[in-house]
Amino acid sequence: MKRAVVVFSGGQDSTTCLIQALDQYDEVHCITFDYGQRHRAEIDVARDLAIKLGASAHKVLDVGLLNELAISSLTRDNIPVPTESEDGIPNTFVPGRNILFLTLAAIYAYQVQAEAVITGVCETDFSGYPDCRDEFVKALNKAITLGMARDVRFETPLMWLNKAETWALADHYQKLDLVRRETLTCYNGIQGDGCGECAACHLRSHGLNEYLANQAVVSASLKEKTGL
Q1: In the chain, how many domains are there?
Q2: Is residue 86 predicted with pLDDT exceeding 70?
Q3: Rounded to 10 degrees, what is the CA torsion of 64, 66, 69, 72?
Q4: Is 132 flagged in the annotation as binding?
Q5: 18 marked as part of a ligand binding site
Q6: Domain extent at residue 120
């Protein structure tokens, strides 16, 4: 029995990871974190999608302490979210978020005897977040394996894909329309195509338009990178 845990926010990236994991693993558990985030609707979206797509289980963990410690536009309503990509680390960065999420997901994987923790972090279109880098994920994976005396593998299927290729991956599994209409990526908490104004919506729509305009080219690039 091959088991995996997906760090699941209900956004485009984590939903695409869940879709792929359901094809590759016998049992897939989703874990969603409630940290008092600005767009809390993502928790309900994640719950609905986990059920709809057929995840084996879905756990929502309360990690409100993160909100208390990490000041960001995603944890404070009085800090406006950016409308364009910024140089350096943007104000949407939540310090320590992926350190905490991956650590707790690994503990959960230990509990359910899963061999892998899957996360949708990406270094190609990572918005300047330092905790989305391949180097960070590998370093934390090594520390957690040592600390728990058990092999748990962190998988990052989107690490070297751009947004257009991520859309192509969803389309490969015939779920492009679902990902487009039912996920929540928008920093302002609007499902589907979102507000169309925030940086997250711009990145998402740019990738979709690039894929739709160049499907053959993007799909070929995806195949070269992933073998799919």
Answers
A1: 1
A2: no
A3: -110
A4: no
A5: yes
A6: 1-224
